[in-house]
Each structure stands twice: as structure tokens, then as C-alpha cells.
């Protein structure tokens, strides 16, 4: 999904997706989200996200800040984002720190978690649960020169056919008038 379409759907939260993401995170880290906090507030300090990354790839975030105030918690979110890129999540799939911290775009936070879940398929060392569909893999094909040359002579019918086509009956513009005798 492009950054433009992600921005266009800002605020369009999908509770089912958030629940699916939460269940996946809980399964990976082996802990439940705090029962007294909604999804976005449980993720806000970045601790759960850092634990998630360290489960997927141990040691990818060396120091998780569990106390120290807002600046330290925002640093957790930043470390999570950097770890996602190291892990292979495309940077276009990442949310901005303010999307989570100021709760400006929780839908994008959930999309990032799903992008991370898809990226786990590319890590054969990961044996745990997956999130989302498995990404398609390249299916490269090699053709011989004979096959390529044979394809050049084929007229594709994607745009229709031109059988029985002619220009009879077509006149463009006015016909020529020849005036004699003046």
C-alpha cells in the first residue's frame, strides 16, 4: 500500500485488524496486553513493540527503556522503527512516531505490525506464529531465443480484432468542389 493511500485512510481504524495484531503480538512475546489499557495506549510507550522485535530477532534492540518518562518511551518507538528496517520491513510501511505517541494514526501503526508479520515469512529461522498472508515470491522464467522469436510474430487480440475492417464509407471533411467556367 502506498504512503498516499495510507495517509488517505488515516483514522479509519479496523477493530478486527487491531485484535488480530494484538493476539499475534501476545502469542509472540508470551504476555497479554494490560487489561486496563486500550490497544493504542498499551503500545504507546514502545515497550511491547521492543519486546516483539527482540523475540523475532534476539538482541536487535539492545536497551529497552522501561522507565524514564516520555523522551525515553519515544526512544523505544524510534528503536522499534529502526529495528523493523533492519529486519526487512520496507520503510514505506512504517508509521511515524507521532502516529502512535500522539495517537494520530493508529490504523497506520496496525499496518506496520501487519507488514512486520508479513516480513517474518522471509526469515526461515522464525518458527513462531505468523501474521497476515505469505508474500508472493518471484517466479522468474527463462525462455530460449526460439521461443522469444516465435512470440514476436503473434498478434495479440487483447484489443480486439481487425478482420473485415476497411475504410469504405468514411469521408472526412467536405468533398472537393471544382468550379469550371469562371
From TrEMBL:
GO cellular component: actin cytoskeleton
GO BP terms in the entry: actin filament organization
Signal peptide from the UniProt entry: none
Domain Calponin-homology (CH) intervals: 15-120
Pfam families, per database record: Calponin, CH
PANTHER family found in the cross-reference section: CALPONIN (PTHR47385:SF13)
Name of the protein in question: Transgelin
